Amino acid sequence: MVGYLLPHPPILIDKIGNGEEKKCQATLEALEKVTDEILEYKPDVVVVISPHAPIFSDVFFLNDKPTIEGSLTRWGVRGVEFKFHNNLKIVEDIAKMSKKEGLSVGFVTDKIERRYGISRELDHGAMVPLYFVTKKYRDFELIHTAYCMVDDIKLYRYGMIIRKALEKHGKRSLIIASGDLSHKLKEDGPYGFAKEGVEFDKLLVDLLQKSDIKGLYDIEPEFYERAAECGFRSIKVLIGAFDGYEVESKVYSYEGPFGVGYCVAGFYQKGSTTSLLDEIAIKKEQRLKKIRENEDEYIRLARESLEYYVKHRRYMDYIPDYVTERMLKERAGVFVSIKKDGNLRGCIGTIYPTQENIAKEIIRNAVAAGFHDPRFEEVTEDELDSLVYDVDILSTPEKVTSRSELDPKKYGVIVKKGVRQGLLLPDLEGVDTVQQQLRIACQKAGIDYDREDFEIERFTVERHK
């Protein structure tokens, strides 16, 4: 078994880059070395795990089209097309094994494509790596899949299943974890700058250079989410495919000339060893235990309120003795956010107080976040141990007469037009300018940012996390 982490910026392709690709010379040279290795290895099947194939919250996309195709037409390049035979027997076995192991695999039908605008054609996360591979070697079948937004254990187990399905059919196989690293390396980059971006890329590259695979599972979800990467989960599926074996990883190159980190790395199977699965589970338990031990009164009340409701199907009818005097006497709007594995699981709040005190506001809104956020299914009892909570206490909103009074890191905003109203909390990942903040708030309110006038209010939050 051989695997690679390969970046996927279309600008690497000379017909798209038009000379700009030369700024990625280290990456291009590394891809040359990797494709030489692939030519020598001669895989029967190539599995591509792409972050730009259809991504679902808890379902792994798996392409079941007999022939998988794509082209670079979207980037103005004609005549560069991809067409691969799909090994449907392996695809069927991955789906069956996943179901047996309690993982969900989803196929996209023609009807789903038309209804939701989802495509089974090859995405650039698959095509860019395959463009370089097929320059030298084309004699392989393709399995096209994606990760989903589940925990490390499930990502790892999906990789294990892919490996078992490939071995069942006796195929010489190669797995490509497609992904770029942080998208926030430079102020003038496409997503701006975040110090976590530079820190995450350095940490990940250092770990891969040392073949410290276990160390990858010490990286906190909140940290790599702030880094705005798209390849880490692909890597974790790939690592699962090496279950039971030592892994030697080798970094061929790393650079970020355009504000996005591009890493080319190889993963090679060595001698047998014990499974990482138990260690990953222990690390997750330790992380959550640490979070629980550091909860303040606001977070603890939100968590216990939702847990009580899930188990008893009624609101908590008592106030715990750890609740502070301030929480009992003061009134304020409150937002409760719930996350699972670093991803939003629910968020509901009140701009103005609706209950007699902050404590009861938290109790109501914690339940609402778990049960009444229309974007998510209701929280179930088996999820409770995996949930992490944030509580924001809002100040009384005040009207703004000039946008110069706004700061998306310090103030949240409320936009109003008649009965339409939208709110956005401050200091959110990816919201770096006033214009971004107002556009998103207007979108939530159904207000046309460019064509309609609207009122603006600002507020601060006291954040508990």
Structural overview:
Helix 6 packs antiparallel against helix 10 (277-293). The protein is globular. It is 35% helix and 22% strand. It is an alpha+beta fold. The chain has helices spanning 14-17, 25-41, 88-100, 110-116, 124-133, 152-168, 195-209, 221-226, 232-240, 277-293, 297-312, 325-329, 358-371, 434-445; strands at 2-6, 45-49, 60-61, 67-71, 81-85, 105-106, 141-145, 173-178, 245-255, 262-272, 334-340, 343-349, 387-394, 398-399, 412-417, 420-424, 455-459, 461-464. The strands form 5 sheets. A 6-stranded mixed beta sheet has the order 7-2-8-1-10-9. The protein folds into 3 domains: 2-282, LigB-like (Protocatechuate 4,5-dioxygenase, Chain B); 295-391, Glycoprotein, Type 4 Pilin (2-Layer Sandwich), CATH 3.30.700; 398-464, 2-Layer Sandwich (Dna Ligase, domain 1). The chain contains 14 helices and 18 strands.
What attributes does this structure have?
14 helices, Protocatechuate 4,5-dioxygenase, Chain B, 465 residues, four-stranded antiparallel beta sheet, 35% helix, alpha+beta, six-stranded mixed beta sheet, Glycoprotein, Type 4 Pilin, Dna Ligase, domain 1, 3 domains, 22% strand
